[in-house]
User: Fold LacI family DNA-binding transcriptional regulator from Streptomyces cathayae.
Amino acid sequence: MTMSNTGGRRKPPTIHDVAREAGVSRGTVSRVLNGGHYVSPAAAQAVDAAIRKTGYVVNRHARSLITGRSDSVGFLLTEPQERFFEDPNFNVLLRGCTQALAAHDIPLLLMIAGTQDERRRIVRYITAGHVDGVLLVSSHSGDPVAEELRAAGVPLVACGKPIGLGSKVSYVAADDRDGARDMVRHLLDLGRRRVGVVTGPLDTPGGVERLAGYQEVLAEAGLEADGRLVVSGDYSRASGEAGAERLLARAPDMDAVFVASDLMAQGVLTALHRAGRRVPQDVAVGGFDDSPAAVATSPRLTTIRQPWDRISAEMVRVLLARIGGEEPAAVILPTELVKREST
Amino acid sequence: MTMSNTGGRRKPPTIHDVAREAGVSRGTVSRVLNGGHYVSPAAAQAVDAAIRKTGYVVNRHARSLITGRSDSVGFLLTEPQERFFEDPNFNVLLRGCTQALAAHDIPLLLMIAGTQDERRRIVRYITAGHVDGVLLVSSHSGDPVAEELRAAGVPLVACGKPIGLGSKVSYVAADDRDGARDMVRHLLDLGRRRVGVVTGPLDTPGGVERLAGYQEVLAEAGLEADGRLVVSGDYSRASGEAGAERLLARAPDMDAVFVASDLMAQGVLTALHRAGRRVPQDVAVGGFDDSPAAVATSPRLTTIRQPWDRISAEMVRVLLARIGGEEPAAVILPTELVKREST
DNA sequence: CTGAAAGCGCTTACAG
DNA sequence: CTGAAAGCGCTTACAG
Assistant:
């Protein structure tokens, strides 16, 4: 009875079955499996046929045992879980990485380091060699997990430039400063002159660089820097809302805001609406990310598109190269202004 | 040069090193590792000490090769990717499952079946035995992947009752009908009499059952069923918005809406707002899920809480039991009305 | 309770 | 180009 279902899983064919079927040795089958070098066309063909006939699939454990590779990678999230729950950017990234890895037949192990305990367990798991490398998503500086992994020599590639890890770690990022410049220039082109900004956390590159881009463009336009127009958030919707309220209180004549993330921009829209300001007539709002959040608002957000597909594809490419022995590399991808109704 | 970083990964200690250090055989070390049965206290202690001293961590590939288990499970998402990007429920579930599995030292492999090609690859991967079982998230009926896996005898547990798979597959679900009943009763208790509903897709249990709960309570209250008050959505925000517009057009006197998901309720709020209806004064809005989306709106949503933590914990528990040879089981968990400002 | 031994399914020098 | 053989690190009957 108990077997009726699970009994469906028979012992799968091994390389030995394929070898016998093809009339060759197991070594030859293995060579075909691993690129087909040093194999005669005839043998290769016989093996291919035998594989199809037997339905053979390689046993990854046996392979890993001997190669020392796991042929899997970890996707490590060290963000506070509220952000993970709230920000659709993670989903986009996760989807992109899963897809890019699938093309290489490499499974993605999801690791979420919320508590201290989880952090420890995950570091132990990774440094034990259970994954070949790690895709790291953690924006904040001084991440102890990242540093531990780097020190242990684990191949790593971060999403966004990791502050405080030196140049020894690979990363893929959008051109934050340039993106911010594009948005602020766009706002100025619209004729706005009192442009506020809600930055990201200033211990993240996105926080620092997007602010820098804002400041540069204002200076180039000959507008004086006004501290009342600058507030910081933590990328959460709530912090955007609170930030807009502070801006409104300090600079009621503000006619535009550049917000360093779409999620915060959602909060800004809420606060503006409550304050009776029309968007974009009274205040133009520009976001950053072009995440799914950007089209969930009304009006929909003008924003700076981060090329998530390319970001995830590059993260995977760089990680696999790193696993293959290449030196660390940084990849900076261009952004794009997406014009919608909020400006 | 190339070695400078990756060279940090030395050959890790094996069971052999531990055995030598502890002065016992490898078999004894293995026995300690696997529960400590048939091992003398003295030997166990020596082995434990040797493990700590050497920093030994089991090589999972070697273990799997012999046990035939992979000691990992897949988390399979067969939803259209838009839903995955938009709906924070997935994140909550993913987080919960990862956490529950981590307690068992079992990694979660994320699998996203968007395209036909991905579907095929994933089925091949799973049926090859690369994971011991699968946590399945796919609300729609007639999912071919689910059926293929079930037929192949892969241990499976679904989130929500899988329509069309018969009773042969385990699942964990919230009590949809009861939750819907609670919400509609709450609306009636508020004095509302023209209560509309935006259902989920009617080929999902959540769609069918929540509608049934709505209908039951109205009937019990002696209110006549009015088809103009019933529209269906697909759980997306946009479909909620469109649904509310249709309701408003067909039943302008509507004074409450029960919406079968928080995300759709977000859309309903947008449409209501645009139509100049105040919430909750003119129209009370009740959601379902208590997802992070419920507190991102203004006013925040009164909703039916699905116990996500328990759902994910139970999914993992049931799956591990199933992998261990137990028969399929269904677990239905109670919901709870969460009162906020939208009613 | 414990050790010696077989074997899981693969890859990879090594000879030819 | 190909086969025979060793060995990856573990678990598990089998004898004691």
